[in-house]
Amino acid sequence: MNNNLFKIDFLLPTVFFKYVCVLFFLICNTTYYYAQTLKKGELAVGIDLTYAPYAYLQGTPRGFDPDLMRLVGEKLNLKVVFKDTRIENIIIGLNADHYDVIASALYVNPQRAQQVLFLPYLQTGGVLVVRKEESYRPLSLQDLCGKKISSMKGAAWIPKLNEVTKNFCFKKNKQTIEIKEYPSAPEATQALLSKGVDVQYEDAAVAKMLVDKLGDKLEISTQEMIDPVLIGLAFKKENSTLKNQIAKVIQELRNSGEYQQLLDKYNLAYPSQELLNKYQWEGEAKLTPIKNGSFNWNYFKDQLFNTDFWKACVIVIELSSLTWCIGVVSGFFVALLGQCTFSFLRTISKSYIWFFRSLPLLVLLIFVYNLPQLWPKSSVLLSNPFISGLLALVLSETAYMAEIHRGALQAIPKGQYEAGKVLGLSYWGVMRIIIAPQTFKIALPALANQYVTIIKLTSLVSVISLTEILLVGQQLYTRNFLVMETLLAVAIYYILIVTIITWIINRFEEKFDVHKKNTDTDETIQVDYEKLKEYSNIKNKNEGKIALELKNVKKVFGNTLVLNDISLSVPWGKVISIIGPSGSGKSTLLRSINGLESIDTGDIEMGGLPFMFKNNNKIKKSNKKLQVLKIGMVFQSYNLFPHKTVLENVMLAPLYHKKNKDQELIRIHALAMLEKVGMLIHANKYPHQLSGGQQQRVAIARALAIQPSIMLFDEPTSALDPELVQEVLKVIKELSNEGMTMIIVTHEMKFAFEVSDRIVFMESGQIIYNEDPQQMKKTQDERLLKFIGNVALVEYNI
Ligand SMILES: Nc1ncnc2c1ncn2[C@@H]1O[C@H](COP(=O)(O)OP(=O)(O)OP(=O)(O)O)[C@@H](O)[C@H]1O
């Protein structure tokens, strides 16, 4: 027993040692695996599949890089997984552990070498591509002075082109080389085809593929590669194990000849020793590596003072402001077309909105910018990216703005249109003076929001090489790959612009909001009261004996006969009240008299002149504007213009029609009308600051300001509280005393019987009685008696 125990005691350290060894081996092994790839048995490859012939998607990833990585994966016994990533984000993705290696034709440059480990595996260089139809054939960079060059964003040769401008072109008194950077090679080629640029500076392999496909239009003008550059696979700084392993595999592939076969397939070359030596010196010895994960605050701070960013801010503000201003106006017109009575115009509006809202802005931008390819004459304007960008943005934004305006237009009560119409304003007059300002005010919060959206949308214009803020940022980080630092600076610039613009719009919105205007104090109006009296009398211009004559008027709404053979004669200076049960056609009759409703048959004459009459089986309106001006109309719901003060409401129509009067005279007359209705003291207030009765009295003053010969009142007291009714009736009574010809639709029976010369009783669209009030009181008709009797006869002190 003791022996056994001894044995166990003796054996334990041996077993423990074995366990520790196995565990150590396992840990080492695991670490080994995780050191080379993120996921065991898998090689994740970061690749931009939009760069043929190096890497592209045709069902599966194809091109030189995918082919090479598959070979490498085979040799290392790893499953290759491709992670499609845009080139500008590819290094940040590597350092964020999204993949193990970048195989995406990544040019080796000193800034990039600070952030990743490079394994050079290819050599390429730039060539110049030109349009075949033209005679211009540049052979070197020196031949590019004064020309426009398209290039892929962040290409290695861009700094070199700038050097040529500085050290060669300027010294020879030649013009600068203008470089336009595009997101990818196809866009750069498109710019060349549509004559936006003169030359495309392109990678030799890409250019060869281009010429293979578009040989009838494009040609490589250089004899050999300009400035050869290295292309490398990139690894995380800490992952030299994987780099060494893949370097070993590539060496094996080179030894076996497989690598050369692959190079030949794509017309590429392995880097020359001379170029590799240069890289050792430039890329690794000279620059201190950037520590992975650190944020370069100094670089970020420098970007806040970068003049290129500030210039781009000016471009963004100009582009977004112009887009917004033009879009607001054009959107309003598209929205108006949508409200038209002509179905053809409505269809145009709807189709426009449908089409441009469905079209992605990016597609529209590229299409507009490249339109000169289809329509060469347009290149005069459209080859300028600012103009192309503005046009595409305006086309797209107009559709969105039209929808915002449509909502605002629908929110404006119909009475506002009608009030403008009865004041004799033309359609465009009503739109300009009454509807547009109100629509704009309603739509302003949504429009302001759209402004902010446009500011951010301008970043898309970088696709056609307009150097706005994002493009400046992209140009920087595609070279140095300090993506986070650059994008933070970009974000700061956008936030700054949006904050300033929002502040300006908010001030603007406050200015527009009449509810926030402090006009509550009853400001004394500076007027000469003696002069007011001179203008306050009603001057009727009575022509002929009869003010108004309706002959056999009929009006149908759908299948309902609303006015049935109405004949009515109104002599000058008389007051006619129209009474009758609800729906009997009283309002329709009144609205037909001033043309707010058309009639189906019959004639309407005013002062002996035809106003509506039958011609070729159609009812026509003659001298409509002139006739309307002879009629003042007061609505049940006042219909004052809420964005104008009381005085502005009253002066609106006389100022519009002018009639050779000077503005001061119009103002005095308007004040006189306000004095007449007892509203002079409130002249500077806005309608929302008045009671219902006060608003109705302003509405009467507004109708009187056009100096009408006939006044129509459509239930002027129906919307008022009983205490406010009498202040309005008092004004109407005074007008009748002055001899104003009036037609009043009312339910105020006592008032009607007191003030009227005749009372018209309507039922089912017909005039049943048209009598003197005293005579009507003696009626034996039970129906009429019942109607008059059923109405409460309130005692008014008027
Ligand atoms: N725009 C319209 N479209 C269709 N029908 C209408 C329209 N305007 C009025 N009507 C119809 O015409 C008839 C007469 O309406 P109207 O407003 O002239 O009557 P009213 O006598 O003024 O009534 P109330 O005293 O209630 O205002 C009603 O049956 C009404 O429904």
From TrEMBL:
GO MF term set: ATP binding; ATP hydrolysis activity; transmembrane transporter activity
Annotated ranges, domain ABC transporter: 548-789
Keyword field: ATP-binding, Cell membrane, Membrane, Nucleotide-binding, Transmembrane, Transmembrane helix, Transport
Location relative to the cell: Cell inner membrane; Cell membrane
Ranges where the ABC transmembrane type-1 domain occurs: 309-505
Transmembrane segments: 12-35, 321-345, 352-369, 381-402, 450-471, 483-505
GO-annotated cellular components: ATP-binding cassette (ABC) transporter complex
SUPFAM superfamilies membership: MetI-like, P-loop containing nucleoside triphosphate hydrolases, Periplasmic binding protein-like II
Name of the featured protein: Polar amino acid transport system permease protein
Organism: Apibacter mensalis
